[in-house]
Design brief:
This protein has about 240 residues and is mainly alpha-helical. The relative contact order is 0.19. The protein contains eleven helices and two strands, in the order ααββααααααααα. The chain is elongated, with a radius of gyration of 21 Å. It starts with a helix and ends with a helix. It has a two-stranded antiparallel ribbon with strand order 1-2.
Length: about 240
């Protein structure tokens, strides 16, 4: 009965598809950073001395890139409650994914040697992408409430466990997609890469994730459980529970 209810829970189906698209957006991008830094950014000498150092290997640059991303992700997540009250969960998620996708596109046009701009874009991308999971999980709770309201049965465990399955599919699928695209562009590890292959690495790190992010935005805009609608559903559920005693 739980599976039957879940199969008819359209908001959950839409949200799961959006989750899959957003995980592909994250996983394809994060899985190709090593190629981006190794073959496009390479070792760099920067204009400003940082920690007494001016020359950095691509490994050090990538490490700093990830550390900066983690710090700004935490900062962005801390702002979620405030922005949720302003925009609502659905619109906020769409804005965050649109912002992250726009940053991906911007990366495509920035020269890989422009380290300062790359790190600036990392700040913008992380502060928009990082909080998305903090917005998604309350939306799954809304799907559980909707299921109870619609079918008079609550299946919170299945709603969330099936959502986790969508995430795992996204992470698994991202590895296959990344490998398949790089193979199409002729990537062979630790060899001199052709301009076509280098261009392919750039696209799979920027434009491909942007497409998945755009798909997540489109899906979430047809997700029907707005905060206003959920207020009515929750009020109705409370009345039912009180009546049931």
């Amino acid at each position: 009965k739980d599976f039957s209810d879940l199969s008819k829970n359209l908001p959950w189906i839409i949200l799961s598809c959006a989750t899959l698209a957003s995980i592909l957006h994250i996983a394809v991008r994060s899985g190709t950073y090593i190629y981006y830094f190794k073959y496009l950014v390479k070792d760099q000498t920067v204009d400003t001395i940082c920690f007494g150092v001016r020359s950095f290997s691509w490994q050090h640059l990538m490490t700093g890139f990830f550390i900066l991303g983690t710090a700004t992700t935490i900062a962005g997540t801390a702002l979620v409650p405030t922005f949720t009250r302003i925009f609502g969960k659905r619109l906020l998620y769409c804005l965050l994914m649109a912002g992250s996708s726009a940053v991906c596109v911007a990366f495509y046009f920035v020269p890989a040697t422009d380290v300062k701009t790359i790190f600036l874009l990392q700040v913008l991308g992380s502060i928009t992408l990082g909080p998305t999971s903090a917005v998604l999980w309350p939306m799954y709770a809304d799907c559980a409430d909707y299921s109870e309201w619609r079918f008079n049965r609550r299946a919170t465990g299945l709603v969330f466990s099936a959502a986790i399955m969508a995430q795992k599919l996204g992470w698994a699928g991202a590895g296959w997609i990344t490998g398949a695209i790089l193979t199409v562009f002729g990537y062979i590890a630790d060899t001199e890469l052709t301009p076509e292959t280098l261009g392919g690495i750039l696209k799979v790190n920027t434009l491909v994730p942007a497409l998945f992010g755009a798909a997540a935005c489109v899906l979430i805009m047809v997700y029907s459980l707005t905060d206003k609608k959920m207020a009515g559903i929750n009020a109705d559920l409370q009345a039912r529970r009180a009546k049931a005693g």
